[in-house]
Amino acid sequence: MPHDDAAAEGMWAVATDQQTNSRIVAAFRERTPGSAAFAEQAADLFPSGITHDSRHQYPYGIYVTRAEGPRKWDVDGNAYIDFFGGHGSLLLGHRHPVVAAAVAEAATEGTHYGASHPREIAWGRAVQRLVPAAERLRFTSSGTEATLMAVRLARAFTGKTALLRFRGHFHGWHDHMAGGYSNHFDGTPTPGVLSGVAEQTVLLDANDLMGLRAALAARDDIAAAIIEPTGASFGQVPVEPSFLHALREETTRHGVLLIMDEVVTGFRVARGGAQAALGVTPDLMSFAKILAGGLPGGAVAGREDVLSLLDFGVTAKAGREKIAHQGTYNANPLSAAAGTAALEVIATTDANARANATAATLRQALNAVLAEERVPWAVYGTFSGFHLFMNPDGAVIDPLRFDPLAMPASALKNQPKDLAAKLRLALQIHGVDTNGRIGGVLSSTHGEAEVRGAADALRAAVRMLRADGEMP
Predict the structure, then answer these.
(1) HEC profile for the chain?
(2) Phi, psi of 164 (to 5 degrees)
(3) Backbone angles phi, psi at 81, to 5 degrees
């Protein structure tokens, strides 16, 4: 894939500006005048009028004022079945009573002490209870910070400089991860990133065992390999479990640390994350999202000997320089309260199983709609996630028998942007919110009503696209 994806994005922006005659866009505008007004104000404040790239939407995104369980409501009073799920952080749904009560109690006691506090210990114990491989951990404010610290720890521990990554896998926005996710698949640096940083990254394709073995055999300077364990974007481009096991074996053989990015999968696919579900133990791991119960928070965790490079006493005794790590909001009391409460619910209920089971039912229901409407697309995914494959190359597929592993990664990752943008608007018009890739995650609060609502919305959205001249 070329590294000029930014140019393609610009072409898409021009194309969407030409949708002024679209009945879908007109219906969306008519339904959301309040969101339009807020979007106009935001345009004077923020680049593109947004505070997160994933919230970019033409002609503007919805503005939400409240949420509960599997649903949320915008400023115009429209209700949505929510599959965006707080960017994946809400396994327990919006405003879970146990989590909300814990945050409310913590807020009455103070929001920031500038000191250690008992709640951070409870939070750390809650993580260790579910993830035995987290021998030591350090809280951060985000998943990006967690993967950044994991890379720094790996380099310091091994004395090596290079990082092995997989194309399409997202690990945050810091310099080491800026390219190779949605563009610059050739390893060239993205704007603002030093060429020397990009040159220390080895980019491979997941599921390519021969390529992995060749790269590890050819270089002795690789400190760590980092991977999304279920595949790029929570399995939009799936990783075969056998490849993950092989990656663990090969990294061990070559003295390379394995970093498992569990920011999305941690505590979602199973209580112990993907490492528990798939039976692969990493050396280091990153957490965020569900970790903090929907509030800001992340963590890097893993082997005690590696995390000890953050330890004043251990490094002094060993005569090594300690890795410095600050962070004003590390283990913030409110995040600690929310995270501890959420992890307790996950540890003591069937929240994971319910979300996973409902997602499987949803995928079946959506594929049934596509088959009935004779649309050559497919919905797929694992655990509590789903993705819509919009078949950009026109392959002959059956939505009821679709195998994503049989498709090239480029086809899975590259949605037809203009069509996807219209489809998302049509879904929102009919009360369903997905992410911009037309996929999402489920919570333990999604149920039969939400499955039926999503299937009805997809059927109506497909028919709107046809009426708009977008589909045969």
Answers:
(1) CCCCHHHHHHHHHHHHHCCCCCHHHHHHHHHCHHHHHHHHHHHCCCHHHCCCHHHCCCCCCCCEEEEEECEEEECCCCEEEECCHHHHCCCCCECCHHHHHHHHHHHHHCCCCCCCCHHHHHHHHHHHHHCCCCCEEEEECCHHHHHHHHHHHHHHHHCCCEEEEECCCCCCCCHHHCCCCCCCCCCCCCCCCCHHHHHCEEEECCCCHHHHHHHHHHCCCEEEEEECCCEHHHHCEECCHHHHHHHHHHHHHCCCEEEEECCCCCCCCCCCHHHHHHCCCCCEEEECHHHHCCCCCEEEEECHHHHHHHCHHHHHHHCCCCCCCCCCCCCCHHHHHHHHHHHHHHHHCCHHHHHHHHHHHHHHHHHHHHHHCCCCCEEECCCCEEEEECCCCCCCCCHHHCCHHHCCHHHHHCCCHHHHHHHHHHHHHCCEECCCCCEEECCCCCCHHHHHHHHHHHHHHHHHHHHCCCCC
(2) -95, 125
(3) -75, 120
In angstroms, the CA 201 to CA 156 distance is: 16
264-293 pLDDT per residue, tens: 999 999 999 999 999 999 999 999 999 999
Which residue has 């390999």 as its token pair?
A: 225
Structure confidence by residue, pLDDT tens digits, 388-428 = 999 999 999 999 999 999 999 999 998 899 999 999 999 99
On whether the CB atoms of residues 119 and 340 are closer than 8 A, the answer is yes
Is 40 exposed, middle or buried, given 0-12, 13-18 or 19+ CB atoms closer than 10 A? Answer: exposed
Largest CA distance in the chain: 72
Q: Closest Cα partner for 437 from 17, 71, 137, 55?
A: 55
Backbone angles phi, psi at 231, to 5 degrees: 120, 170
Per-residue pLDDT band for 19 (boundaries 50, 70, 90) equals: low
Contact 280, 229 (CB under 8 A): yes
